[in-house]
């Protein structure tokens, strides 16, 4: 693997993203919602930040790589990349890194809007990164399965809903949704972020980190299986 | 440079390429000619490692395909039929990306843009470029790493004559500098102008192959075309260039003062293609 080729692909993705209205809009959704929850609905800072970051990780982290991959397939640009010295791993890494950067930028905007501060910054960042890697791999799977950009909507929508709905609606605890949420990895993004914001010790967030890292690993294995069947360029 | 033996490609029950064999020598411009659906693009994809053949042997440079496709990819230039550039990026950004991927200085892209008179469009988004400009950017992209072998899939399809002529000039210049070119086209004039040798592809099979001038000698029929006055209008008449009957007929028209114009014509590659395959190119 060549770091310079990965960086070339990262630069290209950033140049493209600056002019990609649909992905820019997706990046703005979570900070916009946080503004609403925080300033209009008067959510407490930690709650507004946690739900905002959960939205950012899931929506940006899943939608962006799915759209990037599906668009490259649809417009046949992926074939040319595959004919260049760039390997499939480098191509995916370039897209994944830019997606992670997008999630971190959205998080950086959400924090001052919500008025929250991360009391345990390392745990906060590691939880977001592990959660984002998990959803990025799901996004790549959606991208592989989608013949074009439009298809990422109907193929990805059930996944977006499951990842987002159960953790948010299961917040109350004790109900059926909260019981189901325990089996949804994205639930632990919210839990881990909330603990880190509140200043929990690193050891208290290890369970969430472990579940998210394990889920990310399983998602990588699932991606490889789908990739072997579909091939990256379709 | 390219050696292909008994190449087959099937999609389910449909055979796209059926037992194609040919060789391309170093320094040649070799044209693969045929109508849409003849199997040209499928063949070029197998020669560039994008598709795995169902059967047969392909050797490109010293690489056996599909086994060595990754190593080959760094050595060849490919211009696909679709203008698959990043449309939101500028021409310069598109070229800079591939310069970095191939490990060549980004100045190489600028140098080539100047060579095809596109330096003023360098900072224009690709989606705002004309089709001819995009085609030139595609060609440049394939040349960034100075490949010795270039694959072009319908390089001038849909272009106006001026843009097509610009592309032809660049290809001739490259070929003069030693680049071997394999191109597919359904434009017989393009093939006649550019190619050292051609192969007619029809229904996935090579129907005929040879140098354009040799094919014209073998299959061509030289004719005479006369525009004559007949029944108050002008009518174009085509006759064999020699023979007693032609002499008598032309003599008659001359005597009657019917001839408006008269000239000889030689067969084109398009005429020969129809004669060999029984199919039109459109």
Describe the protein in words:
The complex is a heterodimer of chains A (234) and B (282). Chain A has 234 residues and is an all-alpha fold. Chain A has ten helices and no strands. In chain A, α6 packs antiparallel against α9. The longest helix of chain A has 30 residues, at 45-74. Chain A starts with a helix and ends with a helix. The model of chain A has no long low-confidence stretch (mean pLDDT 91). Chain B is globular. In chain B, 35% of the residues lie in helices and 30% in strands. By secondary structure, chain B is of the alpha/beta class. In chain B, β7 (149-153), α6 and β8 (180-185) form a beta-alpha-beta unit. The longest helix of chain B has 16 residues, at 161-176. A six-stranded mixed sheet of chain B has the order 6-7-8-3-9-10, sandwiched between helices. Chain B has a four-stranded antiparallel sheet with strand order 2-1-4-5. Chain B has a three-stranded antiparallel sheet with strand order 12-11-13, covered by helices on one side. The model of chain B has no long low-confidence stretch (mean pLDDT 89). In chain B, α3 crosses α4, α3 packs parallel to α5 and α8 (212-219) packs across α10 (269-277). Classes of the chains: A mainly alpha (234), B alpha/beta (282). Chains A and B meet through α1 and α4 of A and α3 of B.
């Amino acid at each position: 693997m060549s770091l310079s080729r990965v960086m070339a692909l990262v630069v290209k993705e950033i140049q493209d993203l600056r002019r990609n209205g649909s992905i820019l809009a997706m990046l703005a959704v979570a900070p916009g919602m946080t503004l609403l929850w925080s300033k209009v609905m008067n959510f407490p800072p930690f709650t507004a930040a946690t739900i905002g970051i959960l939205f950012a990780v899931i929506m940006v982290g899943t939608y962006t790589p799915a759209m990037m991959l599906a668009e490259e397939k649809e417009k046949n640009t992926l074939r040319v990349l595959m004919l260049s010295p760039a390997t499939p791993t480098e191509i995916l890494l370039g897209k994944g890194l830019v997606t992670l950067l997008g999630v971190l930028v959205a998080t950086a905007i959400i924090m001052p809007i919500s008025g929250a501060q991360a009391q345990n910054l390392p745990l906060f960042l590691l939880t977001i990164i592990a959660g984002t890697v998990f959803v990025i791999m799901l996004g790549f799977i959606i991208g592989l399965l989608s013949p074009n950009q439009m298809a990422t909507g109907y193929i990805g929508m059930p996944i977006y809903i499951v990842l987002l709905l159960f953790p948010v609606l299961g917040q109350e605890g004790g109900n059926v949704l909260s019981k189901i949420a325990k089996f949804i990895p994205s639930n632990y993004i919210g839990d881990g972020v909330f603990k880190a914001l509140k200043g929990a010790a690193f050891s208290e967030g290890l369970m969430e980190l472990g579940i998210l890292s394990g889920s990310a690993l399983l998602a990588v294995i699932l991606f490889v299986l789908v990739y072997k069947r579909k091939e990256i360029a379709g | 440079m390219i050696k292909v033996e008994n190449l087959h490609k099937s999609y389910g029950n449909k055979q796209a390429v059926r037992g194609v064999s040919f060789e391309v020598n170093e320094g040649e411009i070799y044209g693969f000619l045929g109508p849409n659906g003849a199997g040209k693009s499928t063949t070029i994809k197998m020669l560039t490692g994008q598709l795995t053949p169902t059967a047969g042997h392909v050797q490109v440079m010293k690489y056996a395909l599909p086994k060595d496709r990754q190593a080959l990819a760094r050595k060849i230039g490919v211009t696909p039929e679709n203008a698959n550039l990043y449309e939101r990026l500028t021409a310069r950004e598109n070229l800079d990306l591939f310069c970095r991927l191939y490990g060549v200085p980004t100045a190489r892209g600028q140098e080539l843009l100047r060579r095809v008179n596109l330096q003023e469009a360098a900072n224009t988004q690709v989606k705002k470029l004309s089709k001819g400009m995009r085609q030139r950017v595609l060609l440049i992209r394939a040349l960034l790493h100075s490949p010795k072998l270039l694959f072009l899939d319908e390089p001038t399809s849909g272009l106006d004559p001026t843009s097509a002529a610009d592309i032809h000039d660049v290809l001739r210049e490259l070929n003069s500098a030693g680049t071997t070119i394999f191109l597919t086209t359904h434009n017989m004039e393009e093939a006649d102008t550019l190619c050292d040798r051609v192969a007619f592809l029809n229904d996935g099979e090579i129907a005929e192959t040879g140098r354009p001038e040799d094919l014209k000698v073998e299959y061509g029929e030289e004719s005479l075309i006369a525009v004559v006055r007949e029944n108050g209008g002008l009518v174009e008449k085509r006759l064999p260039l020699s023979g007693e009957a032609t002499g008598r007929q032309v003599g008659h028209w001359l005597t009657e003062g019917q001839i408006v114009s008269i000239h000889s014509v030689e067969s084109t590659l398009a005429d020969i293609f129809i004669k060999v395959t029984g199919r039109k190119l459109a």
